[in-house]
Specification:
By secondary structure, this protein is mainly α. It is built from 14 helices and three strands.
């Protein structure tokens, strides 16, 4: 029975894969070419696997049936993901997507981004995110019509830099990341060793192991991506982080005790961001943002505990900021300067100045700023 099921389903999935290829439009702007090629390649890999399931005599043996089923299920999962992400982005590409792609293309040109610009889709089901393997950046549906969260694009552009392999231009960034990781783990393991030498509660030891895992599984990557954004778009990213934390954040001092988390506490991220601003000469802006941050956080009745101070020490965050700056500079990426009035980064910083300086007029001003962003993006060489 199971063999018959796999035989028929495999044939149906082969036809489904061919249909996915046919759904890829042939007339999209060139910035979609890399995504289109990657999707075709991934579907080709799936088709090879499906034909192997159907034709490989070794896999068809009864003793190899469990392996055959596992391979079948893996290919189904891969195709489901590809259909819901890359193929959907290509087949449902909207004029808003084209504008976002022009914007991302312009940003990558301005900052001398060392990788090809990713394709962009407004099919995000949550917030900004990126799939480095597909080279696909997800943006919420309405973000093409507003400017305050656009600095988060710079954060997402940093994620592929941490996953790219064997690229000499990017290696310095990855090397500084590895150095920072060693420092983070050394601090956590040192504290864990101290606790294990004494009579301390098991809960504290469990928390430290959770922190150790969290640094590896996401915290440091988020810090480095935040800092890359700070160095390439300036204070606008700090304001964007405040905006996001107040809209969607939970306890800004939250430190996990039992389960690994992918994102560090919002306050720790802000402190690292502000360290980055200090390192790049934006001390006046740093003070203004810190004042706004502490004022807003005071209203949410969250308390900074001893575990938070132990986990996210000031010296550690400062060193992460220093290493991220060294890595960014070593890639010859263009750092943000306040003289960049007519760049995308310049307009995004103007938007946040307008938000705070003329709040009653901001809704109208934002529409004009969006036009300016679109005009600058339209000059992209991509």
């Amino acid at each position: 029975m199971i063999d018959q099921y796999i035989e028929v389903s495999t044939s149906q999935l082969i036809e489904r894969s061919r249909t996915l290829i046919a759904l890829i439009p042939r007339d999209l702007p060139r910035i979609y070419d890399a995504l289109s090629q990657r999707c075709r390649q991934e579907i080709g890999n799936a088709l090879s696997g499906l034909r192997s399931i159907a034709e490989d005599q070794k896999l068809r043996r009864p003793e190899n049936r469990p392996m055959r089923i596992r391979v079948f299920k893996r290919i189904v999962a891969d195709l489901d993901f590809l259909e819901a992400t890359g193929i959907a982005a290509l087949s449902r590409a909207h004029p808003d997507d084209h504008r976002l792609n022009s914007l991302v293309g312009r940003i990558t040109t301005e900052i001398k981004y060392p990788l090809p610009a990713p394709a962009c889709t407004s099919l995000s089901r949550d917030y900004f995110s990126i799939d480095p393997h597909l080279g696909l950046l997800f943006v919420p549906l309405a973000e093409a019509h507003f400017v305050l969260h656009l600095p988060d694009l710079y954060h997402e552009l940093a994620h592929p830099l941490l996953s790219a392999q064997d690229d000499p231009v990017i290696e310095p960034f990855r090397e500084r990341f590895a150095e920072a990781m060693a420092i983070c783990l050394e601090q956590t393991r040192g504290e864990l060793n101290r606790l294990e030498r004494g009579r301390n509660p098991d809960g504290a030891k469990i928390a430290l192991r959770v922190w150790e895992s969290s640094w590896v599984r996401g915290w440091l990557a988020e810090f480095f991506c935040d800092l890359f954004a700070v160095y390439t778009v300036g204070p606008a990213f700090a304001w964007s982080h405040l905006h996001l934390a107040l809209k969607r954040g939970v306890d800004p001092f939250k430190v996990p005790a039992y389960a690994t988390s992918s994102h560090p506490a919002d306050d720790a991220r802000m402190r690292a961001i502000l360290d980055g601003l200090t390192l790049t000469g934006f001390e006046v802006e740093r003070r203004a943002i810190w004042s706004a941050w502490t004022s807003c956080i005071a209203e949410v009745n969250s308390k900074r505990g001893a575990d938070y101070d132990l986990c996210f020490r000031d010296g550690l965050l400062r060193r992460i900021a220093e290493l991220a700056l060294e890595g960014t500079r070593a890639m010859d990426v263009a750092l943000y300067s306040s003289s960049q009035k007519d760049s995308i980064a310049g307009v995004l910083n103007q938007a946040w100045s307008a938000f705070w300086n003329t709040p009653s007029d901001f809704v109208v001003a934002e529409k004009e700023l969006l036009k300016k962003v679109s005009a600058v993006a339209a000059n992209s060489t991509h």
